[in-house]
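Dear support,

I submitted the protein below through the web form. The confirmation email said the job was done, but the results page showed an empty box. After a refresh the structure appeared. I'm attaching both so you can tell me whether what I see now is the final result or a partial one.
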Amino acid sequence: MRPILQAALLTTFAATGLAQETTLRTTTTLVVVPTLVQTTSKDVVYTLTASDFLLTDNTIPQQIRLEPSSTQPLSLVVLIQTGGAAIREFEHYRALETMLESLLQHDTKPRSKNQVSIVNFDSKPEAASPFTSNVAEWTDAINHPEPGDDRAAILDGLSYSLRLLDSQPATNRRAILLISQPTDLGSKTPLQEILRTTAETNTAIYTLTFSPEKASFKNAFKDAPHLNPPVFGIGQNYFSISEPLGLILGAMRKNLAASIATLTGGEAATFDDQHSLDEDLGTLATHIRNRYLLTFQPASPQPGLHKLEVRLPQHPELTVSARTNYWSAGLESAPALPAK
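What the results page shows now:
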């Protein structure tokens, strides 16, 4: 059964003596925390139980459940930038079909349970392909996307993708794989709305980003080396939980894709050539399949932004990567995002 969702976030903005208010409503009485556990050599650990984990919500230990992710179908939206600098990256997208096939086939139940939809975007999201378990139906759309305009409306694309996922069965795991530049260019959707909806739908967002500046450089110097190896950053805090909300949201815009991935319990990486993208896609496919799904109902549901921490007290030799924050019910006042 889908969790009961009720709450509110009040955002205020004062500029030139005028106040503007926007009320966003969200709640989650059930918090889902996708968690990846690895050895120091980056091997994925599969054998832990709920008793191995210690999860704290604003430093308060929580009673958790370990959900059987292998029995929960995956609904995945692949959101691909086709506008702006992304046009130079089309030749690198060829491995995407293989990665999707790997995800769809990895299931002890019938293959049809795992499904994917492809969405392209530039200044706006394009019509989505229907959810399917046979990604070969969309080979041409993946390998030969149509060039878009000069924009990259990431937040609008995420909003569209979240609406698609909201139509999927509530028992499914929900995820978005965003392939884009790191920063938004042209969206009308507020960042707060994306954070609200991901909380409502328990959706994890995974991001693979390229640098528009580096793409331009490579266009002039085709043999430029891979200077920026991918660094997956689930556990990395891109902002401090103690900062005012307006500052947090403003900081997120500087590397929007990676920050959203961190906040939703997904994963972020960068690529700048075919080889690094292939490696990243393979790593993501493995990690998406093999996350532990920890769930809890907050013992002290204080309103606002909460800090999560997942530890393995009995296994200090292992590395834990998990969702670091979530929104809770209530009213909270904070400055809105600065104008673009």
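Response: this is the final, complete result; the empty box was a page-load delay. The domain at 69-294 is CATH 3.40.50.410 (Rossmann fold).
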